[in-house]
Each structure stands twice: as C-alpha cells, then as structure tokens.
Amino acid sequence: MREGSLQGRRYVVLAVMASMAMISIEATIVSTAMPGIAAQFGDLTLYSCVFSSFLLAQTAMTVVFGKLADMFGRKPIMLLGISIFLIGSFFAGFAWSMPTMIAFRFIQGVGAGAIQPVAMTIIADLYPGEQRGKVQGYLASVWAISAVLGPIAGSAIVHSFSWAWIFWLNIPIGIAGAWLFLVFLREKRKPTVVEIDLLGAALFTTSVAALMIALTDMQSASLGTTVLSAVVVLVSLIGFLIVEQRVREPMISLALWRRRSIAAANCATLLASMALMGLTTFLPIYVQAVLGRSPAISGLALTMVLVGWPAAATLAARTYPRFGLRPLMIFGSFLVPSGAAVFALLGQNSSPFTAGIGSFVMGSGMGLISICSLILIQGAVEWRERGSATASNLFSRNLGSTLGAAILGAVMNYGLSRASAGSAIADDQIARILNGTALFDTNNEILRNLLERTIHTTFMAVFLISLAIVIACIAVKRDVPSGSGRVELNEH
Q1: Residue 44 has what pLDDT?
Q2: Greatest extent of the chain over all pairs of C-alpha atoms, in Å
Q3: CB of 457 within 8 A of CB of 327?
Q4: Hey, which end of the chain has fewer CB within 10 Å, N or C?
Q5: pLDDT band at 442, cuts 50/70/90?
Q6: SS (H, E, C) the chain
Q7: Which of 158, 168, 42 is nearest to 104 (CA)?
Q8: Contact at 8 Å (CB) between 214 and 229?
Q9: For the CA atoms of 38, 31, 359, 301, what is the dihedral angle to 10 degrees?
Q10: Which of 166-170, 228-232, 398-402 has the lowest mean pLDDT?
Q11: Average pLDDT of every residue of the chain
Q12: Which positions ≥6 away from 194 have C-beta within 8 Å?
C-alpha cells in the first residue's frame, strides 16, 4: 500500500474515524432509544435480542472479514462492510416489529464485523509502529466521545424526532467515509488467484453463533437447549479445526494463534473485556441501589472509565518506543486489579467519589492494555497476515464482553438466589429491578443489604478475573524497544 501524501493519509484517518464512530456510538444511542421502541412494538421478551443479534454477527464475522481483507485488499472489504452496515441501518429505521428490528440489527452487526478490523488494519498499513500508536490514540478518543454523546444524542432524537433517525444518522456519515476511502485510499497489489475457505468460514460462524446464543440465553434456557447448543459448538469447532489444517488458504491461521505473544495479548484483551463488562453492568446498580445516589451520580462514577481509557491509550501511544510495549502492558495489567480492588472494598457508607477513582484506575489500565496489545500483534506479522491478526484481537475483545456478561450474570443470579433465601423480596421484583424496568426504593434496608452482598460477590469475581490479566501480560515475550517504528518480537 502506498503511503501517498501526508494530506491523503489524514483524509484516510478521517474516514477510519467516521467509520468507527458509526459503530462506537451505535451501542449507547440504541440503548437510550430501545425502551421506547420496545414499548411501541411490545414483545419485551425479545428486548435483549436486539443487542445480542448485533454482537453475535459482529463477533462471528470479524475474523472472516479480517482474512478476506488479507486476500482481496483492505479497500474493497471496507467498502463492502460500510455498504452492509448502511443497508442494515436504513431498514432498521423502517422496522415494524421486534423480530424485524432484530433481523436488521443482525445485518448491521455483519457490517460492523468488517468495518472494525479492516479500519484498524488500514491504520497499521499506512503508519509505522511509532506513528501508528499516536493514531490509535485518536481512535480511542472516538470511542470515549461516542460513549458520552450517544445517550445525549439518543435522548434528543427520540424526544424531537422519530426514533428511526438514530439509525438513519449513520447514512450520511457512512457515505462520507466511503467517499474518502474511494478517493484517498490507494492499494498496490499484484493480482493473485485465491481459494476462499467457505467451509471453514461457515463452520467457524456456526460455532461462534451457537456459543454466543448459549451464553446469552444461559440464564433462561432449558437444560436440553443448553446441551444442544454445546453439542453444536463442539461439533462445528472440531470440524473447523480439521478443515483449517487441510485447506491451502485457511480462514483463520492456526499458526497465528500458536505464537505465544499473540495468544497472550489476545488472552489479556479477552479478560480485560470481561472485567470491563462487570464494571459497566453492576457499578450503576451499586451506586444507585446500595449507595442511594441518583442516576446522574452513578453515570459520573462510570464515566471516569472513559477519562482514564483514552488518556492512558494516548500516553501509551507516545511513550511505548521509549519504554517498550510489554512493560506498559504489564504496568496496565496491575492497574486493572488495583481499580477492581476498590470496588471489592465498597460498602454502604462508601462515597461515589471512591467508586470514580476505581473506575479511573481500571480505565487507565485497560487503555494501556488495549493499545499496546493491538500494536504488538500488528507488528508481529507480515502484511499478508495483518488483517487476520488485527481481527483476532477484536474478536477476543467482543468474545470477552459476551463471556463477561454471561459469567458475571450467572454469579449475580447465584448470589441473589442465596442472599434472598427467606427474604420478603420476590424473584420477579428482583428481576425487574436488575432489568431497569421497575422503580425501587433504595432506602429499603432489606433490598440494600441483599444487593450489597450480591454485587460484592460479583465485584470479587471481577477482581479475580483482573488478576488473570496480569498473568497473561507477563506471558507476552519481550519486544525489542525501538523508536524506528517497527515492532519486533522475540519468538524463540
């Protein structure tokens, strides 16, 4: 890929930021509008499927599109991803029921599965290691800003316009980004004859889809459904591994995952996403129900993650040539359990300010880990594997979020079942409280004590997960400290 003029590269970065903004703001802006949409459509039992369908499609297709970008080039796959995402966004605005909304959100997720890994890969192609880190810091700020603006924009659109505009807002942004890619992104590739591993892609998608369906519904699914999902995951995964060993151009390079540094960095990313899911899911409940504070205060406590994350990511991007990627990852891995320990020590008399400090510390650690692991993985492979390597990291991040939601949700439910034994609080009342569908009195001492014990158990689980992040980061082999812009790894 030719670097082109500095101005041309800046326009490509702008296109990448626009594309990433569509995905990053989608989660928060849709979350704000979905209660009203669900109330209009009814069938609230499908509420969570609107979100899980998007995540399922994105996770399953991330690695597939990463490989396709290595085979056919970044530009055509990026334009394909934007097109699919905009088609899903357009029809989502016309959804007439919950099932149709779920279907169109699934299409959006397929597009997101192409945009996110290919966008990161384009940055890796255009910029050498040192400069790449700075640009990745800019991309981290896109996620932070989107997390803040998403709820505000969603609320304003729902109150002033039709909820359909939360989806149609993506269309002008996506068209602008696609135009910038068409004009300014230049790839120089020799034509090659490639063999597409369709069977491997189908088996991999099936295994991931079955796994995520099982994890999403594990709290409510019957034993038979759970066993069936487990069998599908196992059979399709074994079939996938057999196929990938035999085909000439495997969809996922197993040799890539055998490299210790890449496997360890992806493991750290997965665990960090699990810990973050625990924080974002249970901290607001704790601040409001146990500490008796307003939703605004709980939002501020959680927002400190969004302050620490981009700040640490930007710092890491500027300083890793001096200190090295591995030392910064290890330092960040110690910050995560330090912040998690703050939540494990919270009590009914704790201050939300203390929770905010814990959020900031955890966010800082995750910012260091996310940027350093991505740069390390991209620098450990050649161009022909860079899309797959980048996709493997993003796949780990998405899978970690799903695993975190399922596992920590199970811990929460287990704690509730034990803590509520003999109490006057009914199970359906607890479920409605946790789903945010019922108002409750935070002065009710029984409820406060129940939730404090339960969420404390969940925070302890987050702390244990965060300790495993330290082990994963230490397992990364040393990189060669260099300011030359190229990351080199010792893999012997």
Answers
A1: 59
A2: 71
A3: no
A4: C
A5: very low
A6: CCCCCHHHHHHHHHHHHHHHHHHHHHHHHHHHHHHHHHHHHCCHHHCCHHHHHHHHHHHHHHHHHHHHHHHHCHHHHHHHHHHHHHHHHHHHCCCCCHHHHHHHHHHHHHHHHHHHHHHHHHHHHHCCHHHHHHHHHHHHHHHHHHHHHHHHHHHHHHHHCCCCHHHHCHHHHHHHHHHHHHHHCCCCCCCCCCCCCHHHHHHHHHHHHHHHHHHHCCCCCCHHHHHHHHHHHHHHHHHHHHHHHHCCCCCCCHHHHHCHHHHHHHHHHHHHHHHHHHHHHHHHHHHHHHCCCCHHHHHHHHHHHHHHHHHHHHHHHHHHHHHCHHHHHHHHHHHHHHHHHHHHCCCCCCCHHHHHHHHHHHHHHHHHHHHHHHHHHHHCCCHHHHHHHHHHHHHHHHHHHHHHHHHHHHHHHHHHHHHCCCCCCCHHHHHHHHCCCCCCCCCCHHHHHHHHHHHHHHHHHHHHHHHHHHHHHHCCCCECCCCCCCCCECCC
A7: 168
A8: yes
A9: -70
A10: 398-402
A11: 77
A12: 71, 72, 249
**pLDDT for residue 363 is more than 80:** yes
Q: Does 40 or 193 have the greater pLDDT score?
A: 40
Q: pLDDT, tens digit, for every residue of 224-281?
A: 777 788 888 889 889 888 887 887 777 677 777 778 888 899 999 999 988 887 887 7
Q: Do the Cβ atoms of 36 and 163 come closer than 8 Å?
A: yes
**What's residue 196's pLDDT?**
67
**Is residue 485 left, alpha or beta, with left meaning phi > 0 and alpha meaning psi from -120 to 50?**
left
CA distance 471 to 268: 8
Question: In terms of C-beta density within 10 A (0-12 exposed, 13-18 middle, 19 or more buried), how is residue 14 classed?
Answer: middle
Q: Which tens digit of pLDDT belongs to each residue from 289-324?
A: 677 666 567 667 777 877 788 788 878 877 887 888
∠ CA 104-106-111, nearest 5°, is 100
Phi, psi (rounded to 5 degrees) for 64? -60, -50
Q: Give the residue from 209, 491, 467 showing the smallest Cα distance to 339.
A: 467
Residue that the structure tokens 């909304």 belong to: 101
Six-digit token string for 459: 């925070």
Spatial distance between the Cα atoms of 251 and 386, rounded to a whole number of angstroms: 13
Q: Which residue has the higher pLDDT, 428 or 207?
A: 207
**pLDDT at residue 443 greater than cutoff 60:** no
Give the number of residues written for the chain: 492
Which residues 6+ apart lie within 8 Å of 117 measured at CB?
Answer: 62, 63, 65, 66, 69, 387, 390, 391, 394
Q: Which residues contact 41 (CB under 8 A, 6 or more apart)?
A: 95, 96, 97, 98, 101
